[in-house]
Write a structure and sequence with these properties.
The protein has 575 residues and is of the alpha+beta class. Helix content is 55%, strand content 16%. The protein has a 5-stranded antiparallel sheet. It has a 5-stranded mixed sheet with strand order 9-11-12-14-13.
């Protein structure tokens, strides 16, 4: 026999919300990290639980009512276990998914459920009759210890889920709206079950409590989009780091944010959650530039403590799975403090400008040397030749020597001034060709040169020629007119050696100083110019004793031995 009561209405209510809720979850689920199975099982189990209670309430025969109690036991167990699993998944406690741990925890509940279903030794239902209360025939049951033990175990699962949510709220306060909605929903069936166990109600309204919690779940799906705005793995380090970050899901909706990003954008964190990317880009164009992958300006500027600070906006995709076939699951926007880098770039630009100004002054100086001094010297040489036609004496010869000496000084000073500029025209250069050209440019008298290398080096042709000219001139001046000069190579570079008297060990550190010379006719600039050219090419110059006892100048490429060296001019140009 069947009966109808107003109590049937709330028990049927879950059917009205279960189907649309399931459709919303399936259609809006976009993140593979959070499994949709636990919430879907929870909704289906609550619906079946309510239907079994409705059927038990609709029948009036005691045997029929008792036959429907197993549905209450089974669905109640499925509800609390799926709730516990969903809480562990949502709060990122993946350790609970290990079969050994989950099986150990659920084993007592499953055993008690089996004993309830079979009513083993009447430990669950000791006796039962029907009574009429408020015009409705209900079962008046005397419960055994297994019933209370089973409920105690179920309470432990509900309490464990609530604990996970509450403790997670303390570490991720941006999701407190979602978390408190879930915890609030859990209290409804808990209070109703306590009311039944303490005889405050004649009917067990626990399933109705879970049914009432379903609308809250619907609210979270639509209002908080709980399966889209899910937490992404983070720690206190991420929350407190100076780098701001936003996490967007596949639908370009903000699903996570730390306080630093909210501060930089000037928006409350909870307002940022659920914010669409289009809204962010309309307010902060730097974000749009970063997403487009453009090399344009994408730096956010803020004034902090009276000083401007700069934050570079970068984006990266949350990549697919290990197989590389799944689509991107979202993206991350990082706000990296680049104030120090920008300041360094400014300093490099300033340094480059100062170097350019210095080079301009050197060019002016070189122009004075080559024109303003040499022109009068050329006039003096011409007048000297005319004077010799009219009157020749030893004094005229001394004047000619002085003019030649002045021309040498001007040439060396001009070369030295031009070495202050960085090497800009490096290209593959044959050492043999440059050496022969330099040898022809120098008054080598009866000296000879032996070139034993066919190496090609990366160098400025003009400056390398100047380097060899100065070395050849130095060898002739100090080794005599019959000196033999050898140009060869070794593993890391090349060398220039002679068979002259050599350079004393205590003078090898001084010979590159400007003005240092041991020759009466030397200017003291020749080897200084050699050192400047070597440094401009990033070569390391070493003075040793040649196998013949003379001087040997070795040039090794520092880029082969010191990868950390940086060309200042290159850095300046790059910035």
């Amino acid at each position: 026999m069947l009966q109808f009561s107003w109590l049937l209405l709330p028990l049927v209510f879950p059917l009205l919300v279960a189907v649309p809720t399931i459709l919303v979850i399936v259609r809006n689920f976009e993140n593979p990290r959070l499994s949709p199975i636990p919430p879907l099982v929870l909704i289906v189990a609550v619906s079946l639980w309510c239907l079994s209670d409705a059927a038990r309430l609709a029948v009036t025969d005691i045997d029929a009512k008792l036959a429907l109690y197993p549905g209450y036991y089974l669905m109640g167990t499925v509800v609390v276990v799926s709730l516990f699993v969903f809480a562990a998944d949502y709060t990122e406690r993946s350790a609970w998914f290990r079969p050994s741990r989950l099986g150990l925890v659920t084993a007592p509940l499953l055993v008690s459920t089996g004993l309830e279903v079979t009513n083993f030794r009447s430990w669950t239902i000791q006796s039962a009759t029907t009574v009429t209360r408020n015009g409705t025939v209900v079962a008046d049951v005397t419960w055994g210890p297994m019933f209370y033990l089973h409920h105690g175990l179920a309470y432990c699962f509900v309490a464990g889920a609530a604990f996970m949510f509450l403790t997670y709220e303390t570490t991720n306060r941006h999701y407190r709206g979602q978390v408190w909605s879930i915890v609030g929903a859990l209290t409804i069936p808990w209070f109703l079950n306590v009311a039944y166990l303490t005889d405050l109600t004649a009917f067990n309204y626990t399933s109705i409590g879970f049914a009432a919690a379903l609308p809250i779940g619907v609210l979270m799906v639509f209002r908080y989009r709980i399966l889209r705005l899910i937490p992404v793995a983070r720690s206190s380090v991420v929350e407190e780091m100076d780098t701001g970050y936003l996490v967007l899901d596949r639908g370009d909706v903000v699903v996570d944010v730390n306080d630093r990003a909210a501060e930089l954008l000037g928006i409350d964190p909870e307002r940022l959650l659920g914010c669409d990317r289009g809204v962010l880009e309309s307010t902060f164009p730097q974000i749009e530039t970063a997403f487009e992958g453009d090399d344009g300006f994408n730096t956010l500027t803020r004034v902090e403590d009276g000083e401007e600070r700069y934050y570079n906006v970068e984006t990266s995709a949350l990549g697919p799975g290990d197989d590389g076939t799944a689509p991107d699951t979202g993206s991350v926007v990082l706000f990296q403090d680049v104030t120090a880098q920008i300041e360094a770039r400014r300093q490099l630009r300033d340094q480059k400008e100062r170097l350019e100004e210095q080079n301009e002054r050197l060019e002016e100086f070189a122009s004075i040397l080559s024109h303003d001094l040499r022109n009068p010297l050329s006039v003096a040489d011409g007048r000297l030749e005319l004077a010799r036609d009219e009157y020749d004496s030893v004094h005229m010869a001394k004047i000619a020597e002085a003019h030649e000496r002045m021309d040498e000084l001007i040439s060396d000073a001009l070369a030295l001034a031009r070495q202050g500029q960085a090497v800009l025209n490096r290209e593959p250069v044959s050492l043999e060709r440059v050496c022969r050209s330099a040898w022809e440019n120098v008054d080598t008298r009866s000296a000879t040169v032996e070139i034993t290398t066919a190496r090609t080096v990366s160098a400025d042709d003009s400056q390398l020629t100047q380097l060899f000219e100065n070395l050849f001139r130095n060898a002739v001046e100090h080794g005599g007119p019959d000196v033999t000069v050898t140009v060869g190579d070794f593993e890391d570079g090349f060398f220039v050696a002679d068979d002259g008297p050599g350079i004393p060990a205590d003078q090898r550190d001084d010979i590159f100083e400007k003005g240092f010379t041991t020759s009466e006719s030397g200017t003291g600039f020749g080897l200084s110019i050699v050192q400047s050219i070597a440094e401009a090419h990033d070569w390391e110059i070493t003075v040793t004793e040649a196998e013949t006892g003379g001087a040997c100048f070795e040039f090794a490429d520092r880029s082969d031995t010191d990868d950390a060296s940086v060309d200042v001019e290159s850095v300046a140009n790059a910035t």
